[in-house]
Amino acid sequence: MFGLLFVVAVGIFTLWYTQSPNEATRDLPQRLSAKLDKLWEIAQESLKSQRYLRAEKALLTILRIDERNATAYNRLGILYAKQQAYGDAIECFEIAQSLEPSASSLHNVGLIYYETENYEKAALAFEQALAMKETVASRHIAYAKVQEKLDHPKRMFEHLERAIELEPSVQSYNILADAYERNGEHEKAGALRTRINRAINSKNPPAARIKQPRRVAM
User: Are 43 and 51 contacting, i.e. CB atoms less than 8 angstroms apart?
Assistant: First the structure.
Protein backbone atom coordinates (compact mmCIF):
# COMPACT_ATOMS: atom_id res chain seq x y z
CA MET A 1 0.00 0.00 0.00
CA PHE A 2 2.71 2.45 0.94
CA GLY A 3 6.10 2.13 -0.71
CA LEU A 4 8.84 3.57 1.47
CA LEU A 5 11.21 5.57 -0.70
CA PHE A 6 14.65 5.99 0.80
CA VAL A 7 15.62 9.16 -0.98
CA VAL A 8 17.20 12.41 0.05
CA ALA A 9 15.07 15.55 -0.41
CA VAL A 10 12.57 13.87 -2.74
CA GLY A 11 9.19 12.32 -1.99
CA ILE A 12 7.00 12.02 1.07
CA PHE A 13 9.12 9.44 2.87
CA THR A 14 12.37 11.30 3.14
CA LEU A 15 15.47 10.54 5.13
CA TRP A 16 16.54 13.77 6.78
CA TYR A 17 19.99 15.21 7.29
CA THR A 18 20.79 16.86 10.60
CA GLN A 19 23.30 19.63 10.04
CA SER A 20 25.51 20.42 7.07
CA PRO A 21 29.06 19.02 6.90
CA ASN A 22 30.48 22.55 7.12
CA GLU A 23 28.61 23.18 10.38
CA ALA A 24 29.83 19.86 11.74
CA THR A 25 33.52 20.74 11.22
CA ARG A 26 33.65 24.51 11.78
CA ASP A 27 34.99 24.31 15.37
CA LEU A 28 37.93 22.03 14.49
CA PRO A 29 41.51 23.22 13.83
CA GLN A 30 41.91 24.59 10.31
CA ARG A 31 44.19 21.82 9.01
CA LEU A 32 41.99 19.04 10.37
CA SER A 33 38.87 20.83 9.22
CA ALA A 34 40.21 20.97 5.66
CA LYS A 35 40.86 17.21 5.72
CA LEU A 36 37.35 16.55 6.99
CA ASP A 37 35.84 18.85 4.38
CA LYS A 38 37.55 16.76 1.70
CA LEU A 39 36.21 13.56 3.22
CA TRP A 40 32.72 15.07 3.34
CA GLU A 41 33.00 15.96 -0.34
CA ILE A 42 33.96 12.37 -1.17
CA ALA A 43 31.11 10.99 0.94
CA GLN A 44 28.51 13.29 -0.60
CA GLU A 45 29.59 12.67 -4.18
CA SER A 46 29.78 8.92 -3.57
CA LEU A 47 26.28 8.83 -2.06
CA LYS A 48 24.87 10.67 -5.07
CA SER A 49 26.59 8.33 -7.51
CA GLN A 50 25.63 5.25 -5.42
CA ARG A 51 29.26 4.34 -4.77
CA TYR A 52 28.31 3.17 -1.31
CA LEU A 53 31.54 1.43 -0.31
CA ARG A 54 33.54 4.59 -1.07
CA ALA A 55 31.03 6.72 0.84
CA GLU A 56 31.12 4.35 3.81
CA LYS A 57 34.93 4.45 3.96
CA ALA A 58 34.91 8.26 3.92
CA LEU A 59 32.28 8.49 6.67
CA LEU A 60 34.04 5.92 8.85
CA THR A 61 37.29 7.85 8.44
CA ILE A 62 35.49 11.00 9.56
CA LEU A 63 34.26 9.16 12.65
CA ARG A 64 37.76 7.90 13.45
CA ILE A 65 38.87 11.53 13.49
CA ASP A 66 35.76 12.92 15.16
CA GLU A 67 33.99 10.09 16.96
CA ARG A 68 31.16 12.31 18.24
CA ASN A 69 30.16 13.65 14.83
CA ALA A 70 26.37 13.24 14.80
CA THR A 71 26.12 14.35 11.18
CA ALA A 72 28.45 11.56 10.04
CA TYR A 73 26.39 8.98 11.92
CA ASN A 74 23.23 10.34 10.33
CA ARG A 75 24.73 10.15 6.81
CA LEU A 76 26.02 6.65 7.54
CA GLY A 77 22.52 5.65 8.61
CA ILE A 78 21.14 6.97 5.34
CA LEU A 79 23.76 5.00 3.44
CA TYR A 80 22.86 1.77 5.25
CA ALA A 81 19.14 2.42 4.76
CA LYS A 82 19.69 2.77 1.01
CA GLN A 83 21.29 -0.68 1.09
CA GLN A 84 18.46 -2.08 3.25
CA ALA A 85 20.87 -2.78 6.11
CA TYR A 86 18.18 -1.59 8.50
CA GLY A 87 19.71 -2.80 11.76
CA ASP A 88 22.90 -0.85 11.07
CA ALA A 89 20.87 2.16 9.94
CA ILE A 90 18.85 2.25 13.17
CA GLU A 91 22.02 1.97 15.24
CA CYS A 92 23.58 4.92 13.41
CA PHE A 93 20.47 7.10 13.72
CA GLU A 94 20.14 6.29 17.42
CA ILE A 95 23.78 7.20 18.04
CA ALA A 96 23.26 10.45 16.14
CA GLN A 97 20.20 11.15 18.28
CA SER A 98 22.11 10.46 21.51
CA LEU A 99 24.92 12.82 20.45
CA GLU A 100 22.74 15.58 19.09
CA PRO A 101 18.98 15.24 19.64
CA SER A 102 17.03 16.27 16.55
CA ALA A 103 13.69 15.68 14.87
CA SER A 104 15.59 14.53 11.77
CA SER A 105 17.27 11.58 13.48
CA LEU A 106 14.01 10.54 15.15
CA HIS A 107 12.19 10.76 11.82
CA ASN A 108 14.83 8.57 10.19
CA VAL A 109 14.51 5.96 12.95
CA GLY A 110 10.74 5.99 12.44
CA LEU A 111 11.15 5.37 8.71
CA ILE A 112 13.32 2.32 9.33
CA TYR A 113 10.87 0.89 11.83
CA TYR A 114 8.07 1.50 9.32
CA GLU A 115 9.97 -0.31 6.60
CA THR A 116 10.60 -3.28 8.91
CA GLU A 117 6.89 -3.30 9.93
CA ASN A 118 7.60 -2.40 13.55
CA TYR A 119 4.74 0.09 13.56
CA GLU A 120 4.50 0.72 17.30
CA LYS A 121 8.14 1.78 17.47
CA ALA A 122 7.73 3.77 14.26
CA ALA A 123 4.79 5.64 15.76
CA LEU A 124 6.76 6.42 18.93
CA ALA A 125 9.72 7.77 16.93
CA PHE A 126 7.47 9.95 14.76
CA GLU A 127 5.61 11.23 17.84
CA GLN A 128 8.91 12.26 19.42
CA ALA A 129 9.97 13.98 16.20
CA LEU A 130 6.67 15.84 15.95
CA ALA A 131 6.95 16.94 19.59
CA MET A 132 10.16 18.81 18.82
CA LYS A 133 10.13 22.40 17.65
CA GLU A 134 10.75 21.75 13.96
CA THR A 135 7.80 20.18 12.12
CA VAL A 136 7.11 19.74 8.41
CA ALA A 137 4.28 18.22 6.37
CA SER A 138 6.12 15.03 5.47
CA ARG A 139 6.48 14.10 9.14
CA HIS A 140 2.75 14.34 9.68
CA ILE A 141 2.15 12.25 6.56
CA ALA A 142 4.62 9.60 7.74
CA TYR A 143 2.94 9.47 11.14
CA ALA A 144 -0.49 9.27 9.47
CA LYS A 145 0.58 6.28 7.42
CA VAL A 146 1.78 4.49 10.54
CA GLN A 147 -1.56 5.22 12.19
CA GLU A 148 -3.33 3.59 9.25
CA LYS A 149 -1.20 0.49 9.73
CA LEU A 150 -2.21 0.52 13.41
CA ASP A 151 -5.88 0.85 12.41
CA HIS A 152 -6.33 4.34 13.87
CA PRO A 153 -8.17 6.11 11.02
CA LYS A 154 -9.24 9.14 13.06
CA ARG A 155 -5.65 9.93 14.01
CA MET A 156 -4.53 9.26 10.44
CA PHE A 157 -6.95 11.82 9.03
CA GLU A 158 -6.05 14.37 11.70
CA HIS A 159 -2.40 14.29 10.68
CA LEU A 160 -3.09 14.25 6.94
CA GLU A 161 -5.14 17.40 7.44
CA ARG A 162 -2.36 18.92 9.54
CA ALA A 163 0.08 18.18 6.70
CA ILE A 164 -2.18 20.05 4.30
CA GLU A 165 -2.27 23.04 6.65
CA LEU A 166 1.53 23.13 6.58
CA GLU A 167 1.91 22.37 2.86
CA PRO A 168 -1.31 22.69 0.83
CA SER A 169 0.07 21.01 -2.27
CA VAL A 170 -1.68 18.87 -4.87
CA GLN A 171 0.42 15.94 -3.67
CA SER A 172 -0.82 16.34 -0.08
CA TYR A 173 -4.44 16.54 -1.21
CA ASN A 174 -4.03 13.46 -3.39
CA ILE A 175 -2.66 11.53 -0.41
CA LEU A 176 -5.76 12.52 1.56
CA ALA A 177 -8.03 11.51 -1.33
CA ASP A 178 -6.29 8.12 -1.50
CA ALA A 179 -6.89 7.68 2.23
CA TYR A 180 -10.58 8.42 1.75
CA GLU A 181 -10.72 5.73 -0.94
CA ARG A 182 -9.04 3.10 1.22
CA ASN A 183 -11.44 3.83 4.06
CA GLY A 184 -14.55 3.54 1.94
CA GLU A 185 -15.20 7.30 1.81
CA HIS A 186 -15.63 7.25 -1.96
CA GLU A 187 -17.85 10.32 -2.21
CA LYS A 188 -15.39 12.43 -0.22
CA ALA A 189 -12.51 11.11 -2.31
CA GLY A 190 -14.35 11.90 -5.55
CA ALA A 191 -15.32 15.39 -4.42
CA LEU A 192 -11.75 16.14 -3.36
CA ARG A 193 -10.30 14.87 -6.65
CA THR A 194 -12.79 17.03 -8.55
CA ARG A 195 -11.58 20.10 -6.65
CA ILE A 196 -7.97 19.11 -7.29
CA ASN A 197 -8.56 18.76 -11.04
CA ARG A 198 -10.42 22.06 -11.23
CA ALA A 199 -7.60 23.79 -9.39
CA ILE A 200 -4.97 22.27 -11.67
CA ASN A 201 -6.85 23.40 -14.77
CA SER A 202 -7.35 26.92 -13.46
CA LYS A 203 -4.99 29.86 -13.71
CA ASN A 204 -4.58 30.12 -9.95
CA PRO A 205 -2.17 27.92 -7.97
CA PRO A 206 -3.90 24.66 -6.95
CA ALA A 207 -3.27 25.14 -3.23
CA ALA A 208 -5.06 28.48 -3.26
CA ARG A 209 -8.26 27.03 -4.75
CA ILE A 210 -8.61 23.73 -2.92
CA LYS A 211 -10.63 24.16 0.25
CA GLN A 212 -9.51 22.44 3.42
CA PRO A 213 -11.63 19.26 3.77
CA ARG A 214 -13.75 18.89 6.85
CA ARG A 215 -12.43 16.66 9.60
CA VAL A 216 -13.73 13.14 9.26
CA ALA A 217 -16.07 12.08 12.06
CA MET A 218 -15.25 8.66 13.44
Answer: no
Q: Which residues pair with 31 in a beta bridge?
A: none
Between 6 and 62, the higher pLDDT residue? 62
Q: Please choose, from the candidates 152, 147, 69, 151, the residue with its C-alpha nearest in 3D space to the C-alpha of residue 77.
A: 69
pTM, rounded to two decimals: 0.73
Buried-state track 157-188, b at ≥16 Cβ within 10 A, e below 16: bbbbbbbbeeebbeebbebbbbbbeebebeeb
Residue 173's alpha-carbon distances to 2, 57, 117, 138, in angstroms, are 16, 42, 25, 13
* In contact, 173 and 210? CB cutoff 8 Å: yes
Query: What domains can be seen in the chain, in order of their start residue?
Result: 1-134 (1.25.40.10), 139-218 (no CATH)
